[in-house]
Design goal:
Creatine Amidinohydrolase
Length: about 280
């Protein structure tokens, strides 16, 4: 299918518009320290949203809150205005996979599976993270999907260290999803993150030969973001030209962290437990 070039998650190789490759940036200690701050802002906002969201609120309410808090902490929203995206968060509910546009008419209801993705730009560098929130009491199917999606993220992160490869991350995610009989969305991938919201390399959530199997080096910063569906892996874009939904109306869940590659392992820069 045709994936638009203005999407906030990285489209896969087959769907990505042609562009000049910038190469993979290795961050200096000073740049990493700045990214710790931008990532901390993102983690703080997502933690606060996870605690305040409740049935009856709208996704526009969450968007306004996120923008206010990001700016209060000295940053600007990474997403707002990015290729024309109107919100400071992506808010995607139930069968909406990614890039849901915040809307004052979009009311959050008990039982919803709510994905909230946001980024903060601080002193020249971006942080990027996504969580999936079970709103009130959800079905057992929804709870399982959310749990496995978060587990898949950490399975991938566990493979991060200098000397390992991107396909180590992808394989760990794919294997965990398959054993749990769910599907990985292949239309979108993770990505490098830093001076730009989207940088090289693409970080796949499934094994592929479409891209080089890049060797990880200390100082790389990656946005790892598996997206899982309860049904088909296929998606389509709505008329708003942003929101991706499952083709079979099945539920979808996503988790994302900005992760630093170190010589001995990794550092989760957007770790909500640390804020």
């Amino acid at each position: 299918m045709n994936i638009l070039s203005n999407l906030l998650s990285q489209p896969t190789q087959n769907n990505r518009p042609k562009r000049q490759r910038r190469g993979i940036e290795i961050k200096s200690p000073r740049e990493i320290e700045i990214m710790r701050q931008s990532a901390k802002i993102v983690a703080t906002v997502l933690k606060e949203i996870s605690e305040l969201v409740q049935p009856g609120m709208t996704t526009a309410d969450l968007d306004a809150y996120a923008e206010k808090r990001i700016r209060e902490m000295g940053a600007t929203p990474s997403f707002k205005g990015y290729h024309g995206f109107p919100g400071s968060i992506c808010s995607s509910i139930n069968n909406e996979v990614v890039h849901g546009i915040p809307n004052k008419k979009k009311v959050i209801r008990a039982g919803d599976v709510l994905k909230v993705d946001t980024g903060a730009y601080y002193e020249g560098f971006h942080g990027d993270s996504c969580i999936t929130i079970a709103v009130g009491e959800v079905t057992s199917e929804a709870a399982r999907l959310i749990r496995v999606a978060e587990e898949a993220l950490y399975k991938g992160i566990e493979q991060v260290k200098a000397g390992n490869y991107l396909m180590d991350i992808a394989g760990a995610i794919e294997d965990h999803v398959k054993v749990n009989k769910l599907t990985v969305v292949e239309d979108f991938t993770g990505h490098g993150v830093g001076r730009n919201l989207h940088e090289e390399p693409s970080v796949f959530n499934f094994r592929t030969h479409d891209m080089p199997n890049v060797k990880l080096r200390a100082g790389m910063t990656l946005a790892i973001e598996p997206i899982l569906n309860a049904g088909s892996k296929y998606t389509r874009i709505l008329a708003d030209r942003w929101t991706a939904v499952t083709v079979d109306n099945a539920l979808s869940a996503q988790f994302e962290h900005t992760v630093l590659v170190t010589e001995t392992g990794y550092e989760i820069l957007t770790d909500r437990a640390l804020v």
